[in-house]
Amino acid sequence: QPRSSVFMESSLAMLATSKRPGKCEKSLKLYRKFSNKKFPRAKRSEATYWFHKGEYKAAVKAFKKALNINAYHASSWFTLGCAHLKLKEFHDAVIAFGKVVSIDESQGDAWSNMAAALTMDGKKAEAFSALQQAVKHHENSWRIWHNYMFSALENKKFKNFLESIERLANL
User: Fold this and answer.
1) How far apart are the C-alpha atoms of 44 and 39, rounded to whole Å?
2) Could you tell me which residues come within 8 angstroms of residue 67 by beta carbon, excluding any fewer than 6 positions away?
């Protein structure tokens, strides 16, 4: 990108993440007017703004546009998955969290959220497999071990259930 474009994208992104009332809305208008919608950082900032405002459909739309420009941004996929969870779009959440772990398989929180979406979608065996990956990458997370314990019990994996009780007791 030309230097002026990088500066413009950075400026718009900083304004979009500003905590000052009205600044974000103004920067979003500027972004739409001048960017030709080619700046992924500014688009991610817009998506994050909508997510934190609780406008999950707008966040999903903006994240999809940002990810069409740069599909290798794991944190965007993660927050997109969270937005899908909020909207109870569990299949889409699984896809988004799957993208996160395909970029970086050590993302235990993404594995855990994928398991939550799979559970809500009625896919308990797949959820248990995702939780196995989550505990592998977040060995010290009592929340993940807690979820793993209940998933093991639901899937009649008693050895794993007992292992999770032991791990929880030692945390």
Assistant:
1) 9
2) 73, 76, 77, 80
Give the contacts of 79 (CB within 8 A, at least 6 positions apart): 47, 48, 51, 59, 63
How many whole angstroms from its chain centre is CA 64? 12
DSSP string of 74-110?
HHHHHHHHHHHHHTT-HHHHHHHHHHHHHH-TT-HHH
pLDDT per residue rounded down to tens, the chain (171 residues):
444 555 555 555 555 555 554 556 666 666 666 555 667 777 888 889 899 999 999 999 999 999 998 899 999 999 999 999 999 999 999 999 999 999 999 999 999 999 999 999 999 999 999 999 999 999 999 999 999 999 999 999 999 999 999 999 998
Q: Is 132 exposed, middle or buried (0-12, 13-18, 19+ CB in 10 A)?
A: middle
With beta carbons less than 8 A apart as the criterion, state whether 70 and 90 touch: no
d(CA 161, CA 154): 9
**Gap between the Cα atoms of 66 and 165, Å rounded:** 42
Element containing residue 116 per DSSP (H, E): helix 108-120
